[in-house]
């Protein structure tokens, strides 16, 4: 832990230097934001750094999965800021400032609401929250410009009065742009007034109208008009991609095209996501076809541990001249490079380097014997490496905190050309092109311009370097003559309205590009023409450059400010409950949880009383204490418990009984990968059970053991899984080791498979079998919306149970909007289902097969809960007759 004036900063491994730089950025931002917000955060802010995104995805501070595109988050409950280092100091600074805007804004709103004695749980709409974080954290950059151009010029723009219902990356950039508009046209002080006035109104729309003095429609119209003024004139000198090039794909997200001539068959290899899973694809290159070619999946990703994740927005694929494909995936604890033989149609080698966590930009040498790439180590440094296939040797080329990306060899493999933010002098930290000489280990500038350059690539004859450059506001293709006296000038090749992300040469005169247009990434075929001579060119003077720039670091004067992290526990949440009824009387209790700052260790405390009369209060205390450890790869938990009170046994005898049970348990989960794990648990429980009407109680000392194997590689739509598979296999044994009153084994097999029928439709299947066999074996139960629909909940019981379900899932209504005089009502993403269920339960002998058939509706509310309404008919008597009337069943919960 690094302690500064306003922050406690946590880091690990060799990340200290970058942690000090991050600390400087954080303190710098704090001094700026306390003025902007007119507010001071009085408590020290926990700032937690991860040295790569892969490690960041493993954090226990938030319980859910973190997608590839999330670059950090502010956790509201304990005020923790969690940030990965993404490879460059500029992006590091951006994310730190972005999350600290969240800290100041939420802290200020909390104080404003509390001072006016108003519920402090309220927050502004997400577009304002994220838009403000972008506006005050970073300048308007190339990516923001690209997105807004596309939204406005291609009719994807969401008007101000509809922004509250929008989601995704769109709200970040539209929110940022709107606040820039407010600052320019109404004054920046209005932004703070929106926060100061937040207590006055239940609706943020009313707050906006009051603060800006105009109706929401007037404000939105003025904003959109300003965007039309800015972007519509671009049509004069710039072009949509479909005007200057031919579209080759129409579906999904398509990145990193690489051309290969496979014995006369022209092919494009690429990374894409066309059905929810990212994979490696092959597509025939035939620009003369009127319809796009259908790609073939070579390597299906994100279903096996070897291909856990592809990094879609990064360069992660290359093809050698001799027909080898190098592509990067996350595999277990770090990135690996897979070498795929196009001729043999299989992976022939996988390169894993234990000290390198993330890998990007693989690039073969001209003879295919060497592989260049950039990688991040445990310091967080993003540097260049060479792997020699002949000697199986890895060589590190650079070693510093400058971001060195997209390396390629020259023709004779003696030099490396790469992009880097090591640009110094007038254009400090801009990404320019550099050349590394392998003979004398020297680095020289190739370009020195006020722009960001990436993805250098030689023409087939190695006479020119083509690359992406944002000199004109978005990423277009530019070029530089290589090894020429006239190499102090870059020339523009394309003038598209929105960005080119990557490209590959077909020959000297044509390219295939991956470009952003109409909120998607598609491939385009581009023929280079003489028209490019009319485009811009930029001269530069390499003598203006300086050698290096140095990042500022926080100065820690005393050694006691650099401390070893010690576990400190604070309260996560506490909830109490009190209930009263005429039969059972009053009862109540509480549940609360503690955890450490990293979320690695958690303690759960539960206390409850079920006494029905005063004299039974001490007899009917329920207490449980548990610890859960998530720190290591093996997660484990243990605890003790004491439960007592009157119960109702729905599975055994449909009668009341009193039971006192106390004991302890231990469980562990060990993941083989993100998709598979084993779970084991053991518990010991001493049980005294008094069944009303029986003379003698049942006493037992129960020891239960179980071992499970769990698999899940499914992907989900709004209401449940839509593709992939899930299953659990469990073996268990329960025995009364003291009195031999109970002795039975358990077996569970529950398998679900989802067959994709379209982008948003699927056919879901489930097959499940449950067995408890032995002395006083417990019964399973079914019935209700989650298994046998139409049958009363828990009405089907037995020591053996089987279930099967078949369900067709499809989109039904994308949006319903009803406008009333004073308000409007919108419902989104209503899905439909047609289903057939079957199953049965029995003890000794099989009774009858039951089923149901029908259709239903599902709707997801706030991405938190799914409401389900089913209509159908029950099938009775071994499928010999239908129920005379329809059943109607409402429930909540995800689809199976």
In short:
The chain has 896 residues and is mostly beta strands. 14% of the residues lie in helices and 45% in strands. It has an 18-stranded antiparallel sheet that branches. Strands 1-2-3-5-4 form a five-stranded mixed sheet. Strands 23-24-25-26-30 form a five-stranded antiparallel sheet, with no helix packed on it.
Description:
- With 896 residues, this protein is mainly beta.
- Helix content is 14%, strand content 45%.
- α1 crosses α3 (89-115).
- The relative contact order is 0.06.
Keyword list:
896 residues, 18-stranded antiparallel beta sheet, 5-stranded mixed beta sheet, 10 helices, 45% strand, globular
Percent of residues in beta strands: 35-45%
* SS summary, helix count: 10
Report the structural category. Answer: mainly beta
Tell how many strands the DSSP assignment holds: 50
* Overall average pLDDT: 92
Q: What's the main sheet like?
A: 18 strands, antiparallel
| DSSP helix fraction | 10-25%
- Rg, rounded, reads 31 Å
The CA-CA distance between the termini, in Å, is: 44 Å
Shape assignment:
globular
Q: Which spans have pLDDT < 50 for at least 5 consecutive residues?
A: none
